Amino acid sequence: MNAMHTRYPTHQRGYNLLELMVTLTIAGVVLGIGIPSFTQFMDNSRMAAAANDLVTSIHAARTEAVKRRQSVTLCASSNWAAASPACDLAGGRGWLVFVDNNANGSLDSGDILVLAQAAPANGVQISVDAGAARYIQYGANGFLQPAAAGTAFTNIQFCDHRGNADTGGGVAAGRWIQIGPTGRPQIYRTQAEVQGSPLGGC
Length: 202
Description:
- The protein is an alpha+beta fold and 202 residues long.
- The protein is 28% helix and 23% strand.
- The protein is built from two helices and eight strands.
């Protein structure tokens, strides 16, 4: 005879209201701490990328000038991604680096485009020396030289919505880049340096 098996009802246990409230409270605290930290991390990354992209472009312009033994210009551009990009010395946010055959600070027919750099991420503002056109030009010796385009910038500042905030350890939210007499760029990151720049801080 087969043994008879008695089946007992299975009890399923879920969360009660108190456990659910505790879990939601903990999740809220974690998110409250984590989201601001992640937002600052993203802001810092955007700022560092903007400054590093410009410095890379400046180094490329200087290197090409020495290598080719010709004038090379870096200029701001509003249409850097176009098939035929042009300089916008009044306020473009992207950048062009090109061999400037007639050293006039303008990308003309016959000039050789070396690189086109995208504009910084939204929220990053750019400022340069008062009255300066948004370009620099290198001669064959790798030093800065004047062009017919007007006074070139030697200081540039990147700022965002955080202004002159200290992001930790004295590091500023913004960046200041200065191009010295030899044409070498220098990035300044500390809050004291950025606020003390010729451009007056963010």
